[in-house]
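Trying the structure run again after the queue cleared.
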Amino acid sequence: MFDQKEIHEESFSANPIERRRAAFKLGWTYDEFSNKQKAFEDLCGLTFDKDSDVREGTTHALGMAFQNLLDKHKAAEYLHVLTFDESRCVRKGVAEAIGDAIQHVPDKEQAWKDLHRLTSDKNSDVREGATEAIGIAIQHLPNKKQAWKDLLRLTSDEDCSVRAEAARLLGTAFQQIPNKEKAREDLIKLTSNEDHWVREGAAEAIGTAIQYVTDKKKAWEDLHRLTFDEDSSVRSGAARSLGTTFHHIPDKKKAWDDLHRLTSDEVFYIRSVATEAIGVYFQQVSEKEKAWEDLKKLASDENLYVRIEVARAIGASFQHVPDKKGAWECLINLTLDEDSNVRVEATRTIGTVFQQMPYKEKTWEDLIKLTSDGDYLVQYSTAEAIGLNFKHVTNKKQAWEDLHRLTFNEDSNIREGIAKAIGTAIQYIPDKKKAWENLIKLTSDEDRDVRVNAHHSLGRISIYKASKSESEEEYIEKLENSIKFFEKASKEAIFYDNPSSFCLPFYRSFHTIVLAEKPQVKDKVEKYLAEAKNEIGDSKNKKLLLEAVENLANALKEVQNLENMDLEAKKGEINFYRKYCEQAAELMKNTEENAPSATIVMRKGLPILDRNLKSLLEEIQEKAKTACQVSKGTDTEEIACAVSREVQKWEIGSQEEMTQKVEDVAYILKAKLTDLPENEYVLNKIEAMRKERDLVKQYEALLILIGQIPTMRVVPEDVVVKNISKTSQDLGAKLYDISQEMNEIRISLKPGIKEEIEISSGIEILGTGAKHIVTIPLQEISYSELKEDLKRIKGKHITKLSKLPDRLARKIKGYLLLHDREDLIEQLK
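Done. Tokens:
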């Protein structure tokens, strides 16, 4: 964490570079300073610095810190004054700062006037900065109509960069404009502009705006036309739009044809963009064989950037590629490419999709061979892939021998990667004792990076050992060992490449809280928060990591409430956080592209670190068991025991997953209850539970409902809805008498963290009149226009997939195929 006293002194340094650095530190860590008033005064003083570079840095600092500043009125006045600064860099900086801070600025009218004026600045850099600020901040601007006009005017600016930026940002601003028909006409007009910079920007703007356009067909036709533009930059913009908005385009067949054609464009970066789009949307393409043929052809493209995108595209689409053997061969061939950048990307992709590959043992052998590649990035990527996929190799004895042999390879890049790989794979390595000894030896390696990764892996393994310990003494010993190893890794690491930076402060705090008296806990949590946030710095995953830090900090607060925590509880705690910290550590140094699994896990599955919820879940499971036993021999036996069986499988997961679990039980209950006056109270409670946004309160409501099951009036057993989405695959054997008709598709809105919609289909069973419900969770079929498509059919009686909107029908069909329900698809034709 930065020292406030040192920063204060730095802000008065004779060296302008140090004063600019002080401004940055003040802005970046303002909310962590104990004396915020003093920090604000230092920032204000730097706004009048004699050096323009310092003033420019201060504008950015004010923008970063604005929402936490004590005196926002005064800060806004300083920003206003700086809009008249003699330096173009300062004026551009302040325009960008206003864009960042506008939602927190008290006088938005004045801020808007300043931005509006800066769009006419004599300097093109300033106009470009103001243009970008308007595009970013338009949702908070008081005069959106004028902002739109300003962006349109700037598409005629004398500077090509300003014109292109203005045209592009019209797409970002489109959502905020009330008169979307007029706005659409403005965009369409720009697609015929004589200036190719404007046409390129307009092409990208249409791609961004198309999801909000009423007449998507017309917007799509204009985008389609631009894919034939004579200027390559315009075709490139159109290709990027196809790649980002494919799921919104009404005529996907023609859009796919455009992408197919663009893969043969004479300009390499257009082929590259088209290739990327194919990978991203491969799942939605109906002609997958043709799409795969395109990727195979592009794998031999003369341009290395195209081949790089092919490797990435295969990774993104591998699970949907019809010819997995061919995809595997293609990736292996790319690892032999003459260009090292292509080999690196192919190796990373193999590491990502290894689990889905048809020839894992052969692929493992290929990875081992790649450790002899002459390029250090290929070697390192290979070592990472080996660590990540050790658990998927059948012959772990041979795999361990490979790892052991590579541990002391003459190339330091291999040793570094293997040091990390052992830490990743330790729980699957057959000879853990030897693996530990190898890492200990690597801590004395001549290469600093090898030593750092060895220490970090030893820390990870120590945490793993703590989670498996058999005594209190062993538990504390392993936890303390892990901290020592993480400290050694941090001490040797370069500040921007420290694998232990995220987890070290957490485990330090965790250790202290487990052993210390309660009064110390608050200080430790605050210290951890400050250290962890400081380590995050300007990571590309900053928002996600900050969320992780807050979750872990909340966990630390909760640990103090576990009175007399026994060994098993402590082991559970540390194992619970172990994987979470490791994923966060990956995000610290990787972008989503290079660490897809870490990013997905953290974004989609941020664990709910809440003791109340954990204990509630245990209470729900116990009460459900009791309800099942009490209901034996009564009409409610089946529903009580079905609910009990379902909740026994539950465990703490992401909020999205846990909300879905409640929804599943709600369907069981509602499907079984009769619509009688005595059930009205219970039915209302079920609906209230489903609409509850607080997860803990939602689970408390479920606890009460489960206790009331034995008193409910239920429908006869022969019409019970026996299956929900979690058991939908078991329906195959039971639904052999399905009739030729789909009775209905029912739509229900589910408020929550974000509004969700569930689709359930009722199928008539011949000879019984019974109905079974197949619930398809929203996250399984999600696409950007799902809500719009569902509104179109809500309330209608649908009997065939062909009666559904095309996108929705394909999504449902894909879900059923994925769950081996071709029988249902056949009945719904």
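The longest strand covers residues 738-750. Worth checking whether this holds up in the mutant runs.
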